[in-house]
Structure formats: C-alpha cells, structure tokens
Design the sequence.
C-alpha cells in the first residue's frame, strides 16, 4: 500500500508500486507463494489484471474467483489449462473459505481487492496481514481493507523492518485474545 | 493511523487509539512538541475536539485555524487567553503556511484533518511525516492524507521501528530529488 494506506491511486493506477525498490528482496515473493495453497480474488482485481495484459494473477496456484461473471471465470480458466484451476464462487465469503479448506487448501492468499479483504476480516478469517508500504503518498484511492460495518480487529506485530531500499515491511498476526470490546465499545 | 490507513473509524470514532500501548514512550509526544512552533488545524478536527470536551488541541502552541467559522475561532481564542494565540485563516494553504513562516515559526505541525494534510502535500509543503500505526484494522473512515488530485509524492524512510508494545512508528522525509514523474507518468 501507499504511505497513506491506498492500494491504488485514482483510476486504479498502480504505478506507485514502481517506487518499491526491492533490492535484495528478489526471493521474497517466491518464498511467500511457496507457503500458499490457493488464491482468492475478486472480479475487480481480475478485470484490472486483464486490462494490463495478465490473464491470471499467478500460474499454478488454484484460484477461487469471487464473481457473478461467468465469462470472466471462463476466460481465466482457459488461460492455463495445464496447471491453474479456476473455481468461480459467489455468496458469503466465510462459506467460500470453508469450501477452500474442504478442498484441502490450508493457506489461502486473499489477493484483493479491499472489499474481499474486508469481507474476510468481517468473517474473522484473516490470520495474517503482510503489508509492504511504498515511500509514496497518493491522497486518494481504495484502501487495503474496505468494509462499511467492520468491528475493529486487533493484530499482534510479527515483523517490522525496512523492505528493500526505502520501503517498509510489516507483518501482523490476528490477535483473537484481544477483543475489540476491550477498548471503549 | 490504523493498520489500514484510517485516522478515525466511521462517525469519527477514535477509540482505536487506545490500542496504541505506548510503554516506555511517555516522553515521545513531549519531545515532538518541543520542536514545534505552531499548529495548523482544520475546523472539523477542532469541532471534534470540542465535542470531546477539549477546548484546544494543545495549550501554549500558537494555533492557525483553517476555517470560515468565526464563532469556532472565538471559542478557541477564549479558551486560554494567557498563552495560546489563535489565528483564524482561510484560503490557499500555501499562503497560510507562508503567513506562519512570516510570523517567525519555522516548524508547523499539520494537526489534521486529512484534507488539510492533503492540501499541504499538494502545495509540496510537507517536509516530514511521522506515522504511528495502531495494531487495529478499521475497514472504513478517513485517511491520513485526502486530496482528490494529488500528484504522487515521494518520501525517504528515516525511521522504522516498533512503537511501545505492538504498534509501529514510521518517519518519512520528503524526497524532492525523486520526482513523481520518474515512475510512469
């Protein structure tokens, strides 16, 4: 996200990501992906990827696409018939996550957007948040979590360091022992 | 701000600030204030403080109130006649900041809200951003910088550490050598 908590600028502009200089962090994303079993992604994020010329968010990782759009799912499913199964789902995100677990996937990556991440958090199914903060302010654009009626959720800080050259990596683990009701609610 | 970049929850709820446990950071705010000459604050932030029973954001520090509301300014000016001058201003924030400098104040604290901070950044008059990140996700609420047409602004990371117990302190300095136009614009 940007310094001010945006995952994109106006018009879904992601060019700010170029300000994250990952010197010496080349294997960081590979290491992350190696620990992931499935990817959950919303239609807006997938459509954005298509507009950028990418047919899939990541090859070889089973994708659950949260969307009513069958044509979008068909396009994604046709992109890599050898290795990337695409499952279109809709409805309550908690049930979708139950389905992913029932399919034998222990660690799902909520790949966005902020609305899907917000729904996962509202269902209290987010165990870990890994944030990379770019050294750039955008001033407008969608947030990393977006939900109109989310009970505040507490996390425990697991990692806090400079990432690459001049960005920040934060990692937070969900702290269910700290009830939101413990602070003034 | 919250983990997801909000400076308040829905309804300007600031109770998430209680999740910042400042163990051993007792002098942090005093040290900050000692280096500040003036405070710039918007009407929304001051009205919020009044609603919480606070007449001024901080006593003894000259306040520039960016507001059309003369009654609001009069109430603030009457709060501490001995030591806290209140100057009501309106118009372009760049000119307001020029006026503060002309009054002999070298370091002004942009105390909020996000719209005032966004205007200061649009005028490229923000030299330093000090962020404390609470271990809490809110999902909705205003952002730390809010401006509809801000050219992305680059910063250099000056501080990155755990703050108190389980929060994060980031400090960024404006990096004017890194033009926004250097990344895809």
Sequence:
């Amino acid at each position: 996200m940007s310094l001010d908590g945006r995952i994109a600028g106006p018009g879904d502009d992601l060019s700010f990501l170029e300000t994250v200089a990952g010197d010496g962090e080349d294997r960081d994303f590979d290491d992350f992906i190696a620990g992931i079993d499935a990817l959950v992604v919303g239609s807006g994020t997938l459509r954005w990827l298509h507009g950028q010329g990418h047919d899939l968010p990541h090859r070889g990782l089973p994708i659950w696409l949260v969307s009513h759009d069958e044509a979008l799912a068909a396009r994604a499913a046709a992109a890599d018939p050898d290795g990337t199964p695409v499952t279109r789902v809709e409805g309550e995100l908690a049930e979708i996550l139950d389905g992913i677990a029932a399919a034998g996937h222990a660690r799902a990556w909520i790949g966005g957007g902020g609305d899907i991440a917000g729904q996962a958090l509202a269902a209290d199914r987010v165990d870990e948040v890994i944030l990379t903060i770019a050294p750039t302010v955008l001033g407008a654009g969608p947030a990393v979590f977006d939900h109109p009626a989310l009970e505040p959720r507490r996390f425990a800080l697991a990692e806090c360091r400079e990432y690459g050259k001049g960005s920040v990596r934060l990692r937070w683990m969900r702290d269910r022992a700290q009830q939101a009701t413990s602070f003034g609610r």
User: Anything to note?
Assistant: The radius of gyration of chain A is 17 Å.
